[in-house]
Amino acid sequence: MAVSSLGVCTVILLGSPWVYVAMARDGLFFRSIGAVVPRTGTPANALLLQGAVALVYLLSGQAEIVTAAVVFGEWIFHTQCGIALIRLRRLRPDLPRPFRSPWYPAAPVFYSAVAAIIVVASVALADPRKTGIGLAVLGAGGVAYWVWKRVGKGARA
Q1: Cα(128)–Cα(122) distance, integer angstroms
Q2: How far apart are CA 114 and CA 139, in angstroms?
Q3: Whether the Cβ atoms of residue 13 and residue 38 lie closer than 8 Å to each other
Q4: Rounded CA separation 17/147 (Å)
């Protein structure tokens, strides 16, 4: 369990700040978050933001609820990733395929189906507070994205 937890923490620590950087570069987040240290290529501002988010989770005092809410939200995106892979292959058959999937499309269909079952089971069986928090955070993120995109269009025009 400890090794698995360490692995997840490493992926989150290394991956999430780069999502913030990509959002900033696309005009969907504060421009300063997209800055990287020229000498090292480190997204320092994004790492500071990630640390602040982690502190909020830690100081909330209810780590189990926050963790369950985040994991629930992640499975929604796992479902979407499998579906997006199938859709992308249909919409963009011209893209290079450096890796051949031997059982395509069975593997992404199976993965998406299992992920969707986990989401549905979470809604049906889990503590409604936990899934409610996860849905609220995703909803708030969707609203923030919509607003940022509209504001960004106005600023670019």
Answers
A1: 9
A2: 23
A3: no
A4: 21
Among 149, 154, 155, 147, which Cα is nearest to 26's?
149
The answer to whether 85 and 94 are in contact (CB under 8 A) is no
DSSP secondary structure, 47-84, as one string: HHHHHHHHHHHHHTS-HHHHHHHHHHHHHHHHHHHHHH
Element at 27 (helix H, strand E): none
The SS3 of residue 132 is helix
Could you report the per-residue pLDDT of 22-59, keeping only the tens digit for each? 989 988 888 999 999 999 999 999 999 988 888 887 88
Alpha carbon distance 38, 54 (integer Å): 25
Nearest to 28 by CA among 140, 153, 122: 153
For the chain, the residue count is 157
d(CA 134, CA 142): 12
How many H-runs (helices) and E-runs (strands) does the chain carry? 5, 0
pTM more than 0.70:
no
89: which 2 tokens?
Answer: 């292959």
Tokens in use for 30? 């504060």
